[in-house]
Design a protein that fits this description.
Elements lengths: L5 E10 L2 E11 L4 E5 L6 H7 L7 E9 L2 E2 L5 H7 L4 E4 L3 H4 L6 H13 L3 H14 L5 H4 L9 H12 L6 E5 L7 H18 L2 E6 L2 H7 L2 E6 L2 E7 H6 L4 H7 L16 E15 L9 E15 L3 E5 L6 H8 L6 E6 L2 E2 H7 L2 H7 E4 L3 H4 L6 H12 L5 H14 L9 H5 L8 H13 L5 E5 L7 H18 L2 E6 L2 H7 L2 E6 L2 E7 H6 L4 H10 L3
Parallel strand pairs: 3-8, 3-9, 6-7, 7-8, 13-18, 13-19, 16-17, 17-18
Antiparallel strand pairs: 1-2, 1-4, 4-5, 9-10, 11-12, 11-14, 14-15, 19-20
Helix pairs in contact: 4-5, 4-7, 5-7, 7-8, 8-23, 16-17, 16-19, 17-19, 19-20
Length: about 525
């Protein structure tokens, strides 16, 4: 038998004497794709990056033999010869991994100059060729672009080009598609598969996306709390998972549990001919005398009834967030947009805008960044009461906060209420933080909640918990949701009606079953196909 390319035995990782990875073993053959799967905190990223000693402050033991050479026994100088040359890494978020002060071409060229000894002209030519191999259009022009001037998919392609600069034997891909839209995600997976086949390299994929594993990997290894609990080929593990944790992960995909609203339910929000545009400067002297318009949303019509969910789906730049901000009254717009029978413009003129804002609340994408790190739980959840019910006394306010927390499943132990309410967001898990955000929105009894990618930052099991919570609150309270997402699985689980956006235009809309099961527009067909299980 051929010796494995990578053989990891008894890998242990600790921080300050506290062990977080407990003696895991796995192998990776040349040309093989292995997925390391688990929730946040399972130890998958720490395990993979510790192979190259890229985790600051970690105490690593065990062995990791790459073509017979133990990486964990190498000194720092010898490891520099391995990093990038024989083992390369594609990091999770390219916007933070790429240097914002240098063009992507210069960053790729730097690797080629340092690792392969090319001169500046040779390195630039090779960088352009690498960008072209990843499918970036106009690679010569894009090589001169800075990271912020590229789309999410283009930034990830640039990261892949940089990782492949020295033709590594092993590529570690750490959540390479988490921040990408569903169609771009499929493109990046196809690109990695093509490059892997062409170059014969092995890929260690780190992810919590089970559908992605089905599309991409040959074998899967499942981690829970620092232990490797199950591994095997993808078809076998998915068909008959042996470990309870693996079965729980498999069962955590979004499930639909919603009621259809009554046909005569009152209208909570209605838009007709909704249009949003932004002024953009004209080039040259023409800019002195006026500006042009960039239309971000064009002629959108929709109706949301009590107890119903309108799902708005599309890629980045499609106009989803623009529509959400307009619905919240935070963007100037043209056309009719009413909450109940009141429009935002009329409410401002009549001085009733605050009352209208109470009827519509929002839950943002990333709970960690949307909750103030300087405010306690009691202050965060009770903030809406300070604005909409300022006459409440301290006791009544606290009772309302505790009741709102209980509604979302956050109940402190008896006698621990005071201590619990004085905690800060960083003391809670991602799922708990999102529940805090929902409690903050719910405390003023809104009729409509705008959900802006409410589960995209969460692990798969936590996603299902949050979706179940939202479904329960809708059934019990008759809530309406405006759901902004690029995740077709979330749309299937939550939405009654779907609106498909691309480049600011509505391409297709209708009942969820009709749009997702029989999509008419080629773009909708591409979205649904990219999200389908393998």
């Amino acid at each position: 038998m051929t010796a494995p390319l990578l053989e990891v035995c008894g890998l242990r990782v600790a921080f300050g004497g506290q062990e977080v990875v407990h003696g895991i073993d796995f192998t990776l053959a040349q040309g093989e794709k292995l997925a390391l799967v688990g929730e946040s905190g399972s130890g998958k990223t720490v395990s993979a990056l510790s192979l190259l000693r890229l985790v600051q402050g970690a105490q690593v033991s065990g062995s990791a033999r790459l073509e017979g050479q133990d990486l964990l026994s190498l000194g720092e100088h010898a490891l520099r010869g391995v990093r990038g040359d024989r083992v390369a890494v594609v990091f999770q978020e390219p916007m933070t991994a790429l240097n914002p002060l240098f063009s992507v071409g210069a960053q790729i060229a730097e690797v080629l100059q340092l690792k392969r000894g090319l001169n500046a002209a040779q390195a630039r030519a090779a960088a352009i060729e690498l960008l072209a191999s990843t499918g970036i259009p106009e690679p010569a022009r894009r090589a001169g672009a800075f990271p912020h001037q590229l789309s999410g998919g283009q930034r990830q392609r640039a990261m892949i080009a940089m990782a492949l600069a020295c033709e590594p034997r092993l590529l570690i891909a750490d959540e390479p598609t988490t921040a990408l839209d569903v169609t771009v995600r499929a493109q990046i997976l196809a690109l990695l598969s093509d490059l892997q086949r062409q170059r014969g390299m092995a890929v260690l994929l780190i992810t919590h996306d089970l559908n992605l594993v089905r599309h991409f990997a040959d074998r899967v290894a499942v981690m829970e709390k620092g232990h490797l609990v199950e591994q095997g080929d993808v078809a076998t593990v998915y068909a008959a998972p042996q470990h309870a944790y693996t079965r729980r992960l498999m069962a955590s995909e979004a499930r639909r549990d919603v009621q259809d609203p009554a046909a005569d339910a009152p209208v909570v929000m209605q838009a007709q001919g909704l249009r949003v545009w932004y002024p953009v400067p004209r080039p040259g002297v023409r800019g002195w005398f006026g500006h042009d318009r960039f239309v971000a949303l064009e002629a959108a019509d929709f109706t949301i009834r009590a107890g119903a969910t309108l799902g708005v789906v599309g890629e980045s730049g499609s106009g989803k967030s623009t529509l959400a901000l307009a619905a919240l009254g935070l963007l100037a717009h043209e056309g009719a947009l009413n909450v109940g029978t009141s429009g935002w413009l009329a409410a401002r003129k009549e001085g009733t805008e605050r009352a209208l804002r109470r009827r519509i609340q929002v839950v943002f994408q990333d709970p960690f960044s949307s909750l103030s790190p300087r405010m306690t739980v009691e202050q965060i959840v009770g903030e809406g009461l300070d604005i909409h019910e300022p006459g409440l006394d301290a006791g009544s306010r606290r009772a309302r906060v505790l009741a709102s927390l209980a509604d979302v499943g956050l109940v402190p132990e008896q006698g621990q209420e005071d201590d619990w309410l004085q905690r800060y967001p960083h003391e809670f898990s991602g799922g708990q933080r999102q529940r805090l955000a929902i409690a903050r929105a719910m405390i003023v009894d809104p009729e409509l909640i705008v959900l802006d990618e409410p589960t995209s930052a969460l692990d798969v099991t936590v996603q299902q918990q949050v979706l179940s919570l939202l479904q329960r609150l809708q059934r019990e309270r008759g809530l309406s949701y405006l759901l902004i997402t690029h995740d077709i699985a979330v749309i299937r689980a939550m939405a009654h009606e779907v609106l498909v956006l691309k480049d600011g235009r509505v391409l297709e809309q209708g009942p969820v079953g009709q749009v997702l099961e029989q999509p008419r527009h080629p773009y909708t067909q591409a979205l649904v196909s990219a999200a389908a299980p393998a």
